[in-house]
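Fold sample X.
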Amino acid sequence: MAIFRSSSDLDMHYLVDDFTDPWREPDTILMLHGNCESGAAWYGWVPHLARRFRVVRPDMRGFGRSTPMPRDFPWTLDIIIDDFIRLMNMLRVERFHLVGAKIGGTVARAFAARRPERVRTLTVIGTPPPFREGAGARIPAWTRDFEENGVEPWARRTMAGRLGDSFPAEGVEWWTKFMGRTAASTQIGFISTIACADITADIPRIACPTLVITTEESGLASVEQTRAWQQRIPNSRLLVLPGNSYHVAASDPERCAQATLEFIAQSGAGAATRSV
């Protein structure tokens, strides 16, 4: 566990998992979690990745153990991307593989498009369309709900679609409590801006090899809708897993992690370096 002072308003919590051979210089994977989560969300991935890669798992500003954000914080994708750039600069990692789930995949797609010199490969799992039609209209209701009830009741109501119908009840409860710890002030500002961000223009600008993972019955979008934007990324592929969860990074971590490892191995991306 470590804390990085990313800026005057942010102490960023992050984890580094590295179980590679001590004589090797491993490549690095930066993992971006979804809304109301933290780097702890990747618990099912770490055993698969960290033997071969140095894995960096930050808590996005406002979430997990990072500094909560006030309700009126001026959220933008570029602010979030800059937070992660500063973290990787501090860790002396110039280029890295980028993995993002849910809204973390929205951030990751914009990241890869806007900072292509830093991203070697991109993997996004269970991530929403580039623009979520109708989401803006729900902001007032969401805001009232978070103001009056906090985050946990919302997480509980929406968890079935998030994790699918085969996830164990004990796991559903863990994820509900985990997400419910998010500060309402963070969530109110985040869901009205980043969760509704339009990254349509970023999609064709993603130049690195890209893997998109979804499920057959994801509640975020159909396979056809996902394929429509995936095919606008020049060097990309789509993997469709069985099931009806949309947070497939959580419901199927082993399969997603293995697919990511195979994708990175097949991508032919050049060797990384730890110096900037």
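Fold sample Y, listed below.
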Amino acid sequence: MLCFRPMTKLRCLILGFLLLLIAAPSYAEDAPIKDFFGVFEGETTFLTATGAKKRGMSVSISPVPNALADGEGASIAGVAVSWTTLTKRADGSFKSKTHDAVFVPADREETIFVAVESSGDTDDIGNSDDVQDQKEAAAETEPEIPTPLFPRDPRGTAPYLWGRIKEKTFSIFIVVVAEDGGYEIQIYDRTLTDEGMTLVYSRDRAGEHLKLLEAFLTRKEG
């Protein structure tokens, strides 16, 4: 920075310091998990081959005091996340899918979470009904302890879930191995707002983008 004679060296230093403050990136703190506790509901509209459809969405996020035993007689607190989608069929009936998961912190800052329990169908990944049939068949035919002679087929196994908090966004990642040996990943980004949260859902298969949904969910009182 050039300083002309009318400006003293002190003023140059002050101006330079202010410019550094303006140019320096600002880092927002990560929200604590308790800020996400509550019930949120909303809907989104998306396009299909037969036209536009509406999908109702809800999510419940709550604390779990005794989510996991630590092996020394104590327990680790976690967080339960349950989300449901509701879609109206052509005949007027409704189809719903619910997924439940319990997460525990994987770091002291409680920004990374790993699922210790999971149930329900993931949304559209790997034909979940077929996957469930494969899991049940595998449980009957595979040995209890996999050996090099009987490696476990990764297809049809339970999806792997983990979570992350970054600033005001609580993201949940779901990964499964597809029938062709590739992988599919779903990402739920839930970002807090003054009225509730925004939801951005994406689904990708081995880098190929398959679906993107956006919705606003209102926080329910009580």
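Sample Y note: Strands lie at 38-48, 51-69, 75-88, 94-105, 112-120, 160-166, 169-177, 183-192, 196-205, 208-219.
Also: The chain has a mean pLDDT of 78.
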